[in-house]
């Protein structure tokens, strides 16, 4: 079970996205190689590795992607190294008959989007605006649902990638105002993309305006998994912490 990450501090700077993920990307590449080598020595191991879904999706076509859809062939400049590391991890994992569990945007206790977390505090302070219409589609996953899906993958599912997300992908323009209401905060500011670009950079603007969501149909069908928080609407109200 490969759950290694170097994340856990403040939210990465979207303008220098790859820099913030550099150590985690080493774990996704060299770290995965070491674990696969160890698994080969032991023999008979079912290998499972965590990945991510959402912004890595191709940013053209429909708003919701499945595991059959390609990853973004033209990623933003600041995210190229991170997407390359994700591609590598998924490729070498599935080549040995393993499963890549692609978590959506995690929220809940201990997360950036959880009680006392950085994103929640940004929303309270009105420092997380809806940018450029907020058409970017996000797929969320409560931390407990990520754990239950991963546990299911220990014994179920054929080799391949699985999107571990809730049932309701939603644009920023929909979920962010809802979150402010849950937190009792003022509605988010709305600003044009050109105004936000110096602060968010190319990748941050994409997160707000062009990213695509993900379908969980395959995980529900092949892993026999059902998220406890079937939608972020319930999760934001009951599961932040």
TrEMBL record:
Q: Which InterPro entries did the record assign?
A: Epimerase_deHydtase (IPR001509), NAD(P)-bd_dom_sf (IPR036291)
Q: Which Pfam families match?
A: Epimerase
**Residues in NAD-dependent epimerase/dehydratase domain copies:** 24-164
User: SUPFAM superfamilies annotated for this entry?
Assistant: NAD(P)-binding Rossmann-fold domains
Region (Disordered) spans which residues? 54-79
The family note in this entry says: Belongs to the NAD(P)-dependent epimerase/dehydratase family.
Please name the PANTHER family in this protein's record.
Answer: DTDP-D-GLUCOSE 4,6-DEHYDRATASE-RELATED
Q: What is this protein called?
A: Nucleoside-diphosphate-sugar epimerase
Organism of origin is: Agromyces flavus
């Amino acid at each position: 079970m490969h759950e290694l990450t170097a994340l856990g501090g403040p939210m990465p700077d979207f303008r220098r996205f790859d820099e913030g993920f550099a150590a985690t990307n080493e774990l996704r590449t060299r770290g995965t190689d070491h674990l696969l080598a160890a698994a080969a020595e032991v023999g008979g191991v079912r290998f499972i590795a965590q990945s991510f879904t959402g912004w890595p999706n191709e940013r053209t076509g429909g708003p919701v992607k499945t595991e059959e859809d390609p990853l973004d062939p033209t990623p933003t400049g600041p995210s190229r190294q991170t997407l390359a590391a994700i591609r590598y991890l998924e490729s070498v994992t599935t080549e040995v008959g393993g499963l890549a569990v692609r978590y959506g945007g995690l929220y809940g206790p201990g997360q950036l989007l959880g009680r006392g977390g950085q994103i929640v505090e940004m929303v309270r302070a009105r420092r997380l605006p809806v940018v450029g219409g907020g058409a970017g589609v996000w797929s969320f996953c409560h931390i407990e649902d990520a754990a239950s899906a991963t546990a299911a993958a220990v014994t179920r599912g054929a080799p391949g990638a699985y999107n571990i997300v809730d049932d309701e992908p939603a644009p920023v323009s929909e979920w962010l105002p809802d979150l402010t209401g849950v937190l009792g905060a003022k509605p988010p500011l709305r600003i044009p993309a050109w105004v936000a670009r110096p602060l968010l950079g190319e990748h941050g603007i994409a997160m707000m305006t062009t990213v695509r969501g993900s379908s969980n149909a395959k995980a529900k069908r092949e892993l026999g998994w059902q998220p406890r928080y079937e939608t972020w609407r319930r999760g934001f109200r009951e599961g932040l912490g």
